[in-house]
Design a protein that fits this description.
This protein is of the alpha+beta class and 574 residues long. It is built from 16 helices and 12 strands.
Length: 574
Amino acid sequence: MTFFQKILFINLLFIPLVLAEPTADTEQKTNDNITTLQTQDTIGSLQDIWTSFSEKQTELSTLQKKLHLMKEDDAEKKELRLKLEELLLSINEQKQAFEQIAIGGLNVELVEQKVASEEFNWEKELILISRPLIDSLKELTEKPRKMEQLRVKILQLENLLVLIQKARQNISQLLEYDDLPKHIKKQLSEVEETWRKRNDDTQNALELTRYQLNSLQETQTSPQAAIINTLHNFIHGRGLTLVIAIAAIAGILIIMRIISWLLLKIYMFHSQKYQRKIRLRWARLLNYIFWILTTILSVFAVITVFYARNDILLLMITMLGIFMTLISLRNILPRYMTEIRLLLDMGQVRQDERVVYEGVPYQLLTINLFSTLNNPELEGILRLPINTVNTLISRPFVSDEAWFPCSVGDYLLLEDNRLAKVTKQSVEIVELHIMGSVASFPTSQFLQMPIRNLSREGFKLSTTFGVDYQHQAICLTEIPKRLYQGIEQTIKASEWGEHIEFVKVEFKLAGASSLDYFILVRGKGTIANDYYALERFIQAACVEVCNQENWVIPFAQLVIHAGEGLSNNEKDNC
């Protein structure tokens, strides 16, 4: 009876005992009987292996003596050496099989690991550090992979047994031949003995592999139980470790935040004598120092928790992350020193100063990885990356310095003397209302346009008015005085009276057909929308004065000079 058949027979015997409802004494006796039979069966298997081992030991001694007596190094001696190596390998396998059955089929790979002293190699050390992570991933599929390997091995051994049996049948048929020569028969007998031993070895290996597979199948649990067990182990093991680590980080963040807030309050209270910019710069530096300390303490707390909880996998992952971060910082920090200076408010761009971006002035509100720029006169803000801000240059701004040439609602006089009203201005576009329609200009392009803002700080309006030469006698005395009085009285009586700051009338020049006067009026920005209406109103006031004083208003005259070749009649006709 083979080893596997014995185990199957034992299982069939004890199925009724397992299905029954035994009492305490019966159950104890049944367990004792099972233990006794299992021990007897194991001893029988060990006896079979030991018998095969003894035979191979005897054969080994015979081959060694025969090899020692042979002097010539011929083909027979080489063949004998190969046979000796195969026999030694088979003896080692028998020893391992004997030991496996003796220890109950346990895995002895961990026990057989040897510690080798080698020179330091950082690549091997890195692989060694990451080994727990790989082993953890392999552990998830270790049992299914092991069972699949055993099934494949069983199939291979069964196929090998079929092949050995066919070989032995062929040899038996040859030995049954009547006229077989003695020396051939002797050689065939040796071959038959070799294949018999090979059959026994393969049979023992097959039984051992089946025994290992059965042991794994008995310990295998259902998928639901495996999932529940895995979750239970995670919650009470690594999951609890992660929760403790997160709680440690949160505690450090809260404590460091409170300390940072208190120190900043104390610093701002005791540094009132310094300029605001200096206070903000040192406050920013102190804030970054606290963030660095918080990060270092958080990492140290995580490592301490993992070490105290003896979670080597999480500890190795954390150490690998720190190692890769340090390598990245070593390569990145030299290239970003300018950006670091900007973040500390020590570079060529400072917080709360004036910068010009794409031709538009802005106030730098914050400096960070994405800095914020704002123009008080424009809608919206700009958010620029720090590498773009690094290309700008800032300067302190004066308190009364203009940020934009106009505001929403202002009236502008364009280059072509058209009057426009500002309806919208943002960081992107400026919209103007011109003669009943809306025109849009990019903000940077609008700043390049020659414009006059009539609404900001008022405006001056100048015009020219002329009288006839027949009033030449009073052109420097009475006429300017009377025109000034008439214009001033007329404006005061109108709706613009309180918005006009002064009126000025002066003799300008003696023109080709008139005596011209320069009239200047300064108005407030509140009546900028009546710019052209005011000019027409002044001309009307001047005409009204002339009508009252009976002064002649000249008109353009065309004078034609006759040439020398014309007769008198022709000159009269001309």
